[in-house]
Amino acid sequence: MAVLGEVVSQVKAYTWNPIVVASRRTILSLLSRITVGQLVIKEVSTNITTVCGLLEPRQDDIDLKHPRKSPEPPNCELRVNSDVFWVRLLLFADMGFAESYMLGEVDCEDLVAFFEIFILNRSALSNATTFFSSAASAVSTIARKTNTLTNAKLNISAHYDISNAMFATFLSPDMTYSCAIFSPISSPQSLTESLEDAQIRKLHYFIDQAHIDRDDHVLEIGTGWGSFAIEAVKLRGCRVTSLTLSVEQKALAEQRIAAVGMSEKIDVLLCDYRALDMQGYFDKVVSIEMLEAVGAEFLETYFECVNRYLKLEGGIAVFQCITIPETRYKIYAAGNDFIRKYIFPGGHLPTVSQLVRSIDNGSKGMLVVNGIRDIGGHYSKTLRLWREEFLKNFEACIRPAFLEEHKNMSEEDIDVFRRKWEYYFTYCEAGFRTKSLGDVIITGGTSGIGAAVARSLATKGASLILLTSQPPSDPFVVEYIEDLRRVTDNQLIYAEQVDLGSLHSIRQFATKWIDNAPPRRLDMIILCAATMTPRYATLNTHTKDGLEACWGINYLANFHLLSILSPAIRAQPADRDVRVIIATCTSYVGGRLGKMKDSKDPLPHNRKYPTSKLALMTFAQAFQKHLHSYARPDKAPNNANVILVDPGTCRTPGTRRWLSLGALWGLGVYILLWPVWWLFLKSAEGGAESIFMAVQDPAFSAGLVSADVLDAESKLGVSAERPEDTKIKMLRECREVSIDRVEVFDDEVAKELWAFSERQIMVLEKEGALQRAAARKAADGNAKQGNSKKEIEDKKVEVADGTEARKAGSKRHRKQA
């Protein structure tokens, strides 16, 4: 037996070391692709240090007013304690890293930064791992099914849950186990507010959103430890029936309810949401982070039940749910991850569009979505505070209690348990800190540069509202939206009809948007739509209001849209980074903003396009000041910024129309010279790069301007003493550039232009209203005339029928005689 043991150990030595070397080489090769942030790897057994990525913070981009928004790349250090780490990471990827961390094979003092590095470099790392992932999956499946001592330790960690008492060591006193809502970081209150304050604010938000009154009977699906039920009764005096599947949570919730004297108002039932027999019984339904446990196959069943339990008249349901971006859902749903294996077995994160569809399908259209709010940004702080309390109380409270409950657990098992929960908190914190984009309005999003921007944003998981001149039911729009959803794997793409050539159409859309209650989410407005009227054009030279097209669409339409939407922009929560991105053109330097004529075609042909762009840029600077002059009720600083982008001259339909001079012979010349245009003009995707930088770069969330730009503008006589947060930025070729016309910064010019624009819109809208009224009157007159003719014809028929009847009667009388 001794000889056999020696042989086995020799075989292991000859096979294991090459496996480790090959795994290490492959992993380090992949990590060398890191371009954002820096990862330092120190190997304990060999004292080898490897640096992956570069750590070069750009000093010019650091936001001194909001340091948390500064684009400093994340950095962290990994300490590899065992060679098993390399093999586990190669075979099991992110799950392998999680298990190595839980088993102590690798350490990291800043896991949040580690996760941020991998999220920010996801595309490069995932593309690189495609080659060997299929081969590794077969080996990993066999390894998973082997009940080794290591796997046993991980399984023990997964199946031992922590008790109510241990949850109490890291939750706030209200015992709310869901995302809180904190004050903005700019608010003085944020420095002193506790996690409990933030949780109570969230509970009050739910109570307000559900419009709970004293006489209401509220159904809560998912009791937790009773915090919502207690706060709802305390605040409004309503009745609450709460459902839970946990015996332990029910017992503690009832104790807490009894302790505050609310047992007569609150009933906690040990009951599945599908088993409740109370049709049309409840005025309101509330569910806070319970949908994650429902599962994809039962989402429609869940909302069918909610609809059944709600009263038919006046019923309101409010839900809070963790979601996953649309672009990652297919991979997520097909696989497994750390959270679903070790924290919430059987859990499922839906997408926003999946929730909306399930609400509509499950309720047969009876439940209508009134509003969606993203509070994911608050979850990172919530998780950080939970983690800090968990680690602070672990040795003194959690470890002894856990050993008391599970006497067969070793110290090593306890350490695995601690690492699992630490990993869980940081894993989720990083995910919420690197959140996806939110709702974005785009004009010109179906062609040219606007279409390229829409594709890029959709690929990143943004929710897009494309403004089109045609109704959403138009076959082209329907097909375009369906194709974009399919290509980008993003279902959150919608169209709304707005004809930028009609001031009335713009007002209809914008007023509908700002009248929505609660206010609709609005993260970004991207204005790409523009027109260049060719020299010999005969079509589309004027808007529906009779305005010259360049002035009407390039400038006045954008002025009108943003002027009306400004309350919606300013109403966005202070923790949201709101941006208005306006596409302009270098030709603005040739524009002239003299005394504007009160005319529908106030400019000579060679000045129309450049002057429309200069006017738009002047308005953009004034609009920036307008937004920042608003005194927010929460006393937070303004969070909306206007950014100008010159995408350059690109190969777009608008450029083709302008270069061909609007003539058939010009189109022929354009086609003959196509190789020249292809060589010297950008693609639409190339032009969209600067716009996409304005969308994503953290440097543009604040008003700081680079020193080079300040120097250039000072030569124009632009004051450098203006507040930095009102100074507009301009991008060209993915870098910030100075603005070469002093009129853009002239307050008097902007004031005169603003007044002229409002006066012009007022006159044109009055004319349009009179024309629509006359058209309706004519239509009504025609309808009445048609009705009168029909009545006369009906009378004639009646008279004729009566005459025939009398003739027939007289004939019968004569026959009888």
TrEMBL record:
The chain crosses the membrane at residues 658-681. Residues 788-807 have a biased composition (Basic and acidic residues). Residues 775-817 are annotated as: Disordered. InterPro entries: CFA/CMAS, NAD(P)-bd_dom_sf, SAM-dependent_MTases_sf, SDR_fam. SUPFAM superfamilies: NAD(P)-binding Rossmann-fold domains (SSF51735), S-adenosyl-L-methionine-dependent methyltransferases (SSF53335). It holds the Pfam family CMAS. Keywords: Membrane, Transmembrane, Transmembrane helix. Residues 808-817 have a biased composition (Basic residues). PANTHER family: CYCLOPROPANE-FATTY-ACYL-PHOSPHOLIPID SYNTHASE (PTHR43667), FATTY ACID C-METHYL TRANSFERASE (PTHR43667:SF2). This is Cyclopropane-fatty-acyl-phospholipid synthase. It comes from Gomphillus americanus.
